[in-house]
Amino acid sequence: MIAFVLRRLVQSVAVMLTVALIAFALFRFVGDPINNMVGQDTSQADRALLRQQLGLNDPFFVQFGRFVANASRGRFGISYQYARPVGEIIAERLPATLELSVTAALLALLIGVPMGVYTGLHPNSALSRLFLALSLVGVSLPTFLIGILLILVFSVILGWFPSFGRGEVVSLGWWSTGLLTISGIKALVLPAITLQLFQMTLIMRLVRAEMLEVLRTDYIKFARARGLPDRVVNFGHALKNTLVPVITITGLQLGSIIAFAIITETVFQWPGMGFLIVQAINFADIPVMAAYLVLVAFFFVVINLVVDLLYYVVDPRLRLERDAAAHG
Amino acid sequence: MAEPLPNRRPLLEVEHLRIEIPTRRGVLAAIDDVSFSIGEGEVLGLVGESGAGKSITGSAIIGLLEPPSHVAGGRIVFGGYRIDNRSPGEMRRIRGKEIGAIFQDPLTSLNPLYTVGQQLAETVRVHLGLDRGAARRRAIALLQEVGIPAAAERVDHYPHQFSGGMRQRVVIALALAANPRLVIADEPTTALDVSIQAQIIALLKRLTREHAMAVLLVTHDMGVIAETADRVAVMYAGRIAEIGPVHEVVKNPQHPYTAGLMGAIPAIGARRDRLLQIDGAMPRLAAMPGGCPFHPRCPEVFAPCRSARPELKPAGRSEAACWLHDRATAGAVHG
Amino acid sequence: MRRHMAEQTADRPLLRRLGDSDLFWSFRRSPVTIGAGAVTALLVLGALLAPLLAPHNPYDLASLNLLDARNPPAWQEGGSWDFPLGTDGQGRDVLSAILYGMRLSLFVGAGAVLLALVVGVGLGLLAGYAGGWVDVIVMRIADVQLSFPAILVALFVDGVARSLLPRDQQDNIALPVVILAIASSIWVQFARTVRGSTLVERHKEYVQAARIIGVRPMRIALGHVLPNAMGPVLVIATINLALAIITEATLSFLGIGIPLTQPSLGTLIRLGRDFLLSGEWWILLFPAAALASLALAVNLLGDWLRDALNPKLR
Q1: Residues C162-178: tens digit of each pLDDT
Q2: Contact predicate A96/A170, CB 8 Å
Q3: Which residue does chain A place closest to C282, by CA atoms?
Q4: Which of the four pLDDT bands, split at 50, 70 and 90, describes residue C111?
């Protein structure tokens, strides 16, 4: 068990370092940091001095080491666009993105899993067909289009929810939350629904497919042959076996909510990190792009690690085999 | 190994059973007019090649036919009551308690996420209404009964921690947990090592004797039948070709197909230069020949075989569905 | 059974064979799939024939007249049949813009998939055939890339490419940059599949025999291994076509895809969004409907294809 965890940790660190390398290369070699920081009047001599002061003449690995050390402390330099430390800007925007993402993830799970179970148990019912048809729409249409259509219907035509922004926010220390005000919650509704739709349909289809597969196995057949009631067979056996692979795949999927947040935040002009990165790309704001890359990679690596460990905890076959291999 | 008493009603009676499967290419008959009976405590072997219809017969009896397969004709009578037309709820109460089943692959028959004890206790509680403590004790007792050593410890082990033979013992324990009167054993030894097979067969024999349980032993392995069964039914292309006491069918096969099967088994001690082989293959459901389904491969084929289906008629001490034993009707059919 | 059928049908013309095949049978059986196929065919046709069908040329800046701007669709007050679906803020005909935009979307999508296919299949063949550290490197990159969603990869490549180019050049090079960005997010699937097939084929006897005879590796790879790997490759290509179209639309919507001078459907939607609140809904709705129809139809076709070719479901 320990060996497994250690190995995965080493892998994670390796991936992070690779990403950091790419980010650093981006940061250092795309465009000229000096040119972006000073005006056009600055003399060559001054530029050379600045270059020396900032350590831009040091050997590659020294600079890289410095980058990594700074990055791990959340220091990514100064944004070209806002002329403020990138770390600060990200810290401001992070709560918005996290609140939106977590809400969307919860919604996707709470809606997707039961729908998947239902369509798996009753594959031919009218309701199942409806769910599947809707899921097809959810999977086919691009997220931004869904967001825009929701705005069209619920904001412009019906006027129930705002079409942009976060509403009123309350500051709790350095965190700002929109969950404590009515307008904040209202502003959260449409973006959260938009963001979770794709994941929700994926989860639903996955649970359904897995459920159908499990219901065809020999052990389910044997459970029925033993006269166990439907409720026990469907929920005690089938559901449990369905959820084991689903948990892990879902965990990985939820990481991609962070990617789709970029789009959703842009559609709704939600002041989060996603919106930030789009503006940064438009502006060629390299420090922000590099920081975002590292941050996102970090999220994914952590999620992958947690999911791997979760699999280990949940499936007894893996546990005992590993222990046997360790002792045997 | 006594013959069932003539006055006592058999435990299971299958009468003219027909199972159909609607497919894209039309309706196929997986089994067509199959009749047999099993007495209390009797072991009936159901033998035949893959695809002959043995497994689906077992599934039909226990009420686990997979849609769209369905019973399209005939009836199944258990303990004097008809069971092929029961509601799912009623069938569920019969399964496990009255009729049990064992399937071929012990690894896939057990849920990998629950311990053996949990699965046993669950079955026992559903049918016998015991509380947790009593259920666990019964689970341990069942494991001991099927010959699993250190049962009190192993009851908390997961299926993958058992070897193949041990797993099949667990499966048998599960099937027997509520003391059913009839057990359908579908290829119980096929997935096991040869050395383990003998142990499992011995276990089955002992248990059936001790619990006075009837068994429908479905297999393609004639050796297992010869060792374990009282009577045997030979299936071919969805129909019964021959049925009778085991030693009769083996020593004096009355149907040419059975004769071919017996001839294909090498006997220790007997000198033979080549194993007998029946030319051709069993017809597919979608391409069933007219008349007797075996006639294209039969060495004794004659006029009526091609056009009319033979019924099961007495032949020697068994019954066989062959025109050779029905000369009277055969004459009438073909003049 | 399949070989038996093949022997029987080898002499019959290809069209009849296709018509009798399992694939076509399952197509005919599902009215939804037929509908999807019809819609896709219609849209693709409309897109390809855009220069002939469109009443105006939306790219010709000289022909735009601000007086025509913000016209509603023809059936509403203030509209005219000159501009059947209305005009946008610059006087561009919405219908023409949609037709040309769809053409562009399809072009970019197909181009990206093609590029990804060529690169992915090539790298996959190389990795599978050469083995060793080439294999390890390619697969490591693939693994790392696969742990991120495609849209992120496309975004990243697009962003970096833009940063590398001077500002004023960006609009001109947008098209190849977008194709490159999307292709870079898709190539991995091709590479993985082909590598797998190559590994399997490599160990088969006919390949070893060819090597012993002295046939050059390139010939073995292209002539023998590749044809066997093509089946799954085609499925991946079809399924990813929808993904590519959507990715392009997303990038354009975010403002980092196809620019406004030659708008694709995504760009049009971005444009239309600004006019939504001021009441000129047609500038948004029609391009959105067009994109939605295209995406749905292609996805349905892809779903059907994947199910029809899945051996497990037969």
Answers
A1: 777 776 666 677 888 89
A2: no
A3: A152
A4: very high
Nearest to A225 among B100, B112, B161 (CB): B100
Measure the CA dihedral A20/C255/A254/A197, to 10°. 180
**B103, B123, B171: residue with CB nearest A221:** B103
Q: Which two tokens stand for residue A255?
A: 């990481």
Q: Do B95 and A227 touch (CB under 8 A)?
A: yes
| Chain A residue whose CA is closest to B126 | A228
Residue A267 has pLDDT above 50, yes or no: yes
pLDDT of residue B116: 92
Per-residue pLDDT tens digits for C40-55: 888 888 888 777 777 7
Torsion angle of C-alpha atoms C36, C41, C43, C48, degrees rounded to 10 = 160
CA distance C286 to C102: 12
If DSSP codes are grouped into helix, strand and coil, which group holds residue A276? helix
Q: Which two tokens stand for residue C205?
A: 């006897």
A236 CB near a chain B CB, below 8 Å? yes
Burial environment of residue B125 by CB neighbours within 10 A (0 to 12, 13 to 18, 19 or more):
buried
ipTM (interface predicted TM): 0.83
Nearest neighbour of A140 by CB, restricted to C277, C288, C296: C296
pLDDT at C117: 93
Using beta carbons and an 8 Å cutoff, which residues of C are at the interface with A? 144, 147-149, 151-152, 155-156, 158-160, 162-164, 167, 242, 246, 249-250, 253-256, 266, 269, 273, 276-277, 281, 284-285, 288, 291-292, 295-296, 298-300, 303
> 């097939």: which residue's tokens?
C197
Structure tokens at B70: 């369905």
Residues of chain C with pLDDT > 90: what percent? 10
The C-alpha atoms of residue C23 and residue C9 are separated, in whole angstroms, by: 15
By residue count, chain A amounts to: 328
Quick one: pLDDT band at residue A322, thresholds 50, 70, 90? very low
CATH architecture of C30-54+85-309: Orthogonal Bundle (1.10)
Global pTM?
A: 0.77
Check if A230 contacts B (Cβ < 8 Å).
Answer: yes
B22 three-class SS: strand
Where do we find the tokens 């004769």? B259
